[in-house]
Amino acid sequence: MKYMKIFTLFLFIIGSIAGIYSQDSNWRIYVEHMAEEEGISETTIENIYEELLYLENNQMNLNSITRDQLEQFPLLSIEEINTIMGFLEKNRPLYTVYELRNVPRLDIKTVELILPFFYTGETDKTTAKLSLPGIAKKGLNELQFRLDKTVTPRAGYGEFPDSILERYPNRKYCGEDFYTSLRYSFRYRDKVQLGMTAEKDAGEPFFKSDHPKGYDHYGIHMIINDMGRLRTIALGDYRLSFGQGLILNNDFMVSKAWSNDNIARRTQHPKRHFSTAESGFFRGMAAVYEYDKISVTAFYSNRRIDANLSGDGEITSFKTDGLHRTPLEIDKKKNTREQVVGGNINFRKEGIRVGISGLYNTYDRVYNPPEQNYNIYYQRGSSHANASVDYSCQLPGFIFAGETAIAKNGAIATLNTAQYRPSQTLSFTLLHRYFPISYNSPYGQAFSEGSRVQNEKGLFLGSAFSPFRKFSVDTYIDFIRIPWLNFGIDTPSKAVEYYFLGNYAISRQNSLDIRYRYKQKEKNRRIPGEPVALVLPYATHKLRLRYVHELKNGWNFRTTADMAHYTEKHSPAENGFMISQNTGYRGKGRITGDIYLAYFSADTYNARLYSYERNLLNTFYMPSFYGRGYRLAISAKYNIATNLSFSVKAGYTHYFNRDTIGSGTEKINGNSRTDLFSYLRWKF
Q: How far apart are CA 610 and CA 517, in angstroms?
C-alpha cells in the first residue's frame, strides 16, 4: 500500500539520522528486551540468562581480570573489550568499579549495565592450589525444582478404547500431563562448576514400570578453569563457538536487532550446558591450552541423538524438539550415535587475532533426506568435515572481523564485517555473507536470514548513534538473495528487512519506545486458473509502541501497543492488533510479582503478534497470538528465607472466535486454556 511505503521511507530516513538501542541499566530487563525480538529462541535466551546470572554471582576483579575472562562476557563487543583492557593496563589499580565511567568510547548506559559483574580488590599474585576439601567447604550449592501443568484437558490425555489404541497407538500420550525439571549446580569462585539437569516434558512417562529411569532427559557437566597453562577443561555437556560460527556455534546466536556493535563474534572457551534443551550441545570432553599468545582448543563429543528414519534405517531428518510422548516419538529416542571431534588454534597479538578451526563428524547411520529440488545439495552420507580461518583486527575507530570456511566437497563460504565508530555515540556496521548452495555445515550457526549456513547472499547495513542525551535509536537494513530454490519456493528469490528501534528517556522513571520492522520475501502461490504455482512477493509490517513508568517504591508499569499488517499480491491485506499492560512490583519486601493483561485481534496466522511476559526464574515465555481474545497472567515470588524462594504463575488465554485450540494430540475442545507454573530455588 502506498501509505505504508511512505511510512517505511520516513522511518528509514529518521533511523539514518538517529541511533543506538537504549540499554537498560538492569541486565535482567535488557535480556527481556532481547527475548521480545522475533527469531530468537527460548533456549538462546535461557543460555544467555544462565551465563549472566553465573557471572553476576562470580564477580570479576577489575585489578586482575584478563582479556580471556572479558571475552567470555556476552554483553561486550570486541571493541569494548579492547577499550576496557587498554584502560585497565594504564590505570590499575582501580579503587571503585565506577572508574569504568572514564573508559574512552564506553557510554554510560553500557557501564551501568555491566557494573554488577565486577568489583575492585587487591590482586592476589599467589595461585591457590585446588583441593577437594577446600572446594567442598567454600563452594556454593543451588537446587532448582520446576513443576508446570496445563489444567485444561487436551486430546492426548483422553481415554480411548483398547481397540482404538491398537489401531492408532499415537493418539494417546504415554505419560502424565505435567512438566517437571530438577537442576543442581555447584560452583567454587570462577574455578569450578558442577551441575546436573533432569527433565520430563508434559506427556512423557515418569517413573512408570516400563520407564524406570524417571526423568526423560538427564545431563551432567563439570568445568574447571585456570590450571596453569591448561586454561579450561570441560567434561560432560558443554557448548562451543569458533570464529563467526560458519563451522561451529552451539553457544547461542542472537537476533539481528540485538546490537549492531555485537554482530562480530569471537571464539569462546567451552561453556557448561545447563539448559534443559535436549539438543544443540556436545557431550564428552573439551580443553583449552594456552602458551604465550597462542591458545589451542580441542574437543570430542560422543552422544546418542534423535532422528527420523526411513524403512531402510537411513536418517531422513534430525528430531530436535526433545519430545518423547507417544510410542512413535519414543521409538525415535536416541536411535542414532553422533561423534564429533575438532579443534581451534588461535593467535593473538595486540589488536589482531587469527584462528584456524576444523571439525569432523560421523553418524552410525547414513544421512539421506528424501531428495527434493530444494535439497539436492544437502549433506549426505555418514560423515562430514569442515575447516575455516577467522580473523579480527582493531584499528583506531575500526573493527574488522570475518571467517572463511570450506566444506568436505570443496564449497567455500565467507562472512566479513566492518565497524566504524568515529565517536562514543556514533557507529556504522557493514556485514557481507556468502553461503553457496553446495556448502554444508551441520554445526554452523552464523548471522543469516535462514536457519542454515547455506544458500544465501546478504548485505547488512546498520547505523547506531545518539544525537541527544535522552534520545537514541538503532536501525538496520538487510538485503538478502537466495541463489537456489528453497522450501516453499520453486525459483531463486530475494528478500529485504528493515528495522528501526527508538527510545526516548523522558526521565529516569519514564521512557517511550517505538519499534518498526518491515520484511519482504517471496513464496509459491496457487492462483485459480493458473496451471502452475506462481512465485509472488509478500510483506509484513510490524509496529510497536511502548511506555514504561517506574516508581521508586518498586512499582513499574509497561503499556504496549502492537500492530501487524500483512500483504500478499492478489490477496486482501491481513491485519493484527494487540494492546497489553504489565504491572510489576519489585519492592524490598519478601513478595514480588507481575500482572499481565493483553487483548489481541489478528485476522490470520500471517498477522500474528508476539508477546513477551515475565515468567519464572530461568524460564522465558514468548507466545504468539492470532484470532481474537485476551491473555491474563499473574505471577508472584515469595522469599521464604534469604536463600530459599518459591515462585508461582497462572496464565489464562481466552478466544472469542474459536471453538477449539490447537490440533492433534494437543487439541483443546473449548475456547480457553489455563496453565500453572511453579518454581522452587534453594541456595546452600
A: 13
